[in-house]
Amino acid sequence: MILLNLIVSLVIIVRCAYSKPDFYLIETKNTIGKVHSDIRASDYPEKDTDDNSAESETSTEDIILDCKCGKENINVADRIVGGEDAEMLEFPWAVAIVMKGQTIYGDKFHYHVCGAVLISSKWVLTAAHCSHDDKGVDWKIENLSVRLGDHNQDVKNDTKIEIIREIDKFIIDPDYEKSSLDNDIALVKMDREVDLMLYTPVCLPELNKEYKGKAYALGWGWTKPGVINSHAKILQKIKIKIRPFENCKRQYPKVTERMICAGVLNGKKDTCKGDSGGPLTVRLKEYQRRHVLAGLTSWGNDPCAAPGFYGVFTKVSYYIDWIYQTIRDQTESVKFCQTE
Questions:
Q1: Domain-embedded: residue 3
Q2: Would 1 be classed as within a structural domain?
Q3: Among this protein's residues, is 129 annotated catalytic?
């Protein structure tokens, strides 16, 4: 998250962490995934499915557990936030896509790549561009994992519930465009379930729901624009405002109706590299002030937090049918928390 006023330079950047760390990638022989380009066409459904297909005849059971989605672990209803540290486990749906690595001495660790958000017991959402590096080269799925229950990324298991889940499938929206970052959304299926009574998921929005006003963005991304690997150690939170589409379009002509702009005019609050795929949420009265997922951090101006420029987020409500259909086609039973 960024709190600096900077000279405006109208360069568009994606907001994943692409700089190469000082480690070697672990080449896993026992892989569970494929290179991303191999799974796009055949391993997940198109948005419009044939009702007569064999897949549509498969019945998937939705299991609604006795837990509430989008519920914070502390009450921060009206506190002013601006790129400050989140409380430990304040937002339990905030998770990370991490890369397996090891030092030249053989010590294994996980390196932060992108943000993500927990939506069910086995699924997280992230940005589609988190599947490849800044040159468009796809990561190998077996080198990526999902980290849940984290707070300070420099302190191992400081929350006492930090866990790593391997990735079973990384399913990119079939209409995703690397060049324009349109349809920048992906579903990630973890290899094992997590306990939703412990790891609270975010609430999903209604189809094509429009949101305005205050929103919350989270991430472990860069805190100093242009400074490589200046990731926040502790999960950061900012309160920003969702902006009208017309304002967004004037700023960025390539913005589509599948995107949201959010930020502040003075440029003191913004998402940045490493925050990609992380949640933009709104708190709604009809959800008892719990958090509903409005967007996923996608791209924005370079440098981040420049006055007069907002961050751009993938509009999640546009993809709700695709999200549910894909999950049900890939999972025998789906566990969610209650929305009411």
A1: no
A2: no
A3: yes
